Structure formats: structure tokens, C-alpha cells
Amino acid sequence: METPKERFCALLRSTGREDIDYVIEDLEAMGFFTAPASVRNHFNYAGGLVEHSLGVYDAAMMLREGVLARRPDLEKKLPVESVIIASLLHDVCKANIYRLVTRKRKNEIGTWEDIEEYEVNYAELPIGHGEKSVVMLLRMGFYLEDDEILAIRWHMGPWAVDTGSIEQDRSYRQAIANTPLLPLIHTADTVSSQILERNA
Q1: 8 Å CB contact between 99 and 116
Q2: Rounded to whole angstroms, how far apart are CA atoms 174 and 56?
Q3: N or C end: fewer C-beta atoms under 10 angstroms in the chain?
């Protein structure tokens, strides 16, 4: 039985991208494969981040298949390699922001007990969610296509747009106009975190 980490690495390697093994080594060193996907929401346990990333990949491939059934002309705009890269690596920024802490909390009968939970620390490179994932990948020396950069940068969709910034709003709208990979990854992330991972 293939583990989530093994499946994740096999999918990345299937792209044939140069230096992908170095990226996997860097992800390992940063704790990507043992990190949670969130503090209190979806997959908030050790290894949750890699499972969430695989969920986004699965959702993205299902969406891609459905889109191409209606719009086969978009196949070149949604290459499998780019779907793999953008979906699996969209949350690289979460690899080094969580740490496990012990806190006191009252249980259901009113007795104080120690519980372990994650807390988040954005002190290291606080530049934003999608931006940080792109920067971290580029710092690893990993080549990203422009469409992949846009899909990773804006994978949170409109939630990542500062409503008071005309420049951000225009950049986001232009990014969507540039590539269907962006809304595909944003939608896959939403499907995975809000539906597939619900109550998991």
C-alpha cells in the first residue's frame, strides 16, 4: 500500500522536471511531510498537509477531466504536468509555520487536562500565503512556468485579494484571464478543503 508521501513524490517525479528530487529533499527538511494542513480546520494533524495536497490534486484532475469534456480546446492550457505541480505545491508555505504545543483545557467533566494542539507562527518570511509558496519554490532553484506561478500565487482565489488594493484586484483579474489553471487550482483547493476533507 502506497503511503501519501510515496504517492506525492511519485506524482512529482512523473512530471520529469529537473531538480525535482532536490525539491523533495528540501520539503523533507522543512517538515512538509509531517506538517498539518491547518491549525483547527481541515486535516489538522501530523501528515495532514501532504494528504490535503493530494486531495487538491485529485480534485483538480477530476475538474480537468470534466472541463476538457466540454472544452477540449483547453487541453494545452491545462497540461497534466502543470496541474500536478500547482496542486501538490500550492501550500509549500505551510511546511514551516506550525508547531505542536501543550495547553491546559477543561474536559467535558470540568477537569483540567493537557492537550496537544498546533499553533501557527508567520514570523519567518511574512509575505503572504500564495506568494510565500512561489518564493520558497524559486529559492529551491525549481523552475515554474508562468501559469504555475499564477495558480500557486492566487490559489486562495478572491480571498487572497486585498479589497482596498486596486492593483491587487487588477492583478488577480488579469491572472485569471491569463490562465484557466488558476481557477482550476482554486476550485480544487476549495473542493478538497471544504467538501472532501469535511469532518475528516
Answers
A1: no
A2: 23
A3: N
